[in-house]
Amino acid sequence: MTASTQQAVYGRLHFAKGLTLKGIFDGFQRYNEILNEIAKVEGTVWPDNSNQVGHLYENFVDRLHFSRLGSEAMAMNFLLAVLGKIEPQPAGPQQGAQ
Questions:
Q1: Less crowded by CB within 10 Å, the N or C end of the chain?
Q2: pTM value?
Q3: Closest CA to 69 of 77, 59, 78
Q4: Mean pLDDT taken over the chain
Q5: Phi-psi region of 56 (alpha: psi -120 to 50; beta: other; left: phi over 0)
Q6: What's the rounded Cα separation, in Å, for the pair 21 and 48?
Q7: What CA–CA distance (Å, rounded) separates 36 from 43?
Q8: Where are the domains of the chain?
């Protein structure tokens, strides 16, 4: 675990009284697994934003919530995931073609 990730996680302990770091990590991992399972059942996607959005200060307004920059990175991950699921449709007949 990098120093910046470790610092961010220790900050989360403040809001998760009684949990250990292992408990927090296990909870985040299980949360993402459940969301990924739901996405598969529903035939959609769930990008792994917890690993795709960098654990950098500029991506967060506090130790848990995304900043504008972090939100934009998360939105881009969703956009790319959704675009990857969309299959191109064959072009239909041209308007006005005889």
A1: C
A2: 0.60
A3: 59
A4: 81
A5: beta
A6: 20
A7: 10
A8: 3-85
